[in-house]
Design brief:
Blueprint lengths: L7 E7 L2 E9 L4 E3 L4 H5 L3 H14 L5 E8 L3 H19 L4 H7 L29
Parallel strand pairs: 3-4
Antiparallel strand pairs: 1-2, 2-4
Helix pairs in contact: 2-3
Length: about 130
């Protein structure tokens, strides 16, 4: 008989990046698009720290393995999306984490996205130079 794996899910978003995060009890291993944390973010220590923030806030470092699938965005947006997804998965695991995660601002989706270019104009806000004559 197979043993059931307890798994908590969380979807994180930032800008155009979307991360589907699966939390499993483990030793703190990260699998991000089938790569380790160091392979995925390379030398970006700040982004690695951002990804670990929910675990630091809830004092659950090295208690869960993270398996995540990330689509869209750049490296910074992907880190923010993973962080948001981990925070939501931890909240699914234990509702008592809500106050700590909320205090750190980890449950709020960062909705800042690039403003679209308007037709007949140079850019989102930029306009062609006006000439009276």
């Amino acid at each position: 008989m197979a043993t059931a794996i307890t798994e908590n899910l969380g979807t994180g978003k930032r800008k155009t990046a979307v991360a589907r995060v699966h939390l499993r009890p483990g030793k703190g291993a990260f699998s991000l698009n089938d790569q380790s944390l160091d392979e995925f973010f390379g030398g970006h220590e700040t982004l690695k720290m951002i990804v670990r923030q929910p675990f630091v806030a809830t004092e659950t470092i090295e208690k869960f393995d993270v398996i995540a699938t990330i689509d869209g965005g750049g490296v910074a947006a992907r880190a923010g999306a993973i962080r948001h997804g981990i925070a939501r998965a931890l909240l699914d695991l234990n509702e008592e984490f809500r106050s700590r995660l909320r205090k750190e601002g980890l449950l709020t989706r960062d909705s800042r996205i690039k403003e679209r270019k308007k037709y007949g104009q140079k850019g989102a806000r930029a306009r062609f130079q006006f000439s009276k004559r």
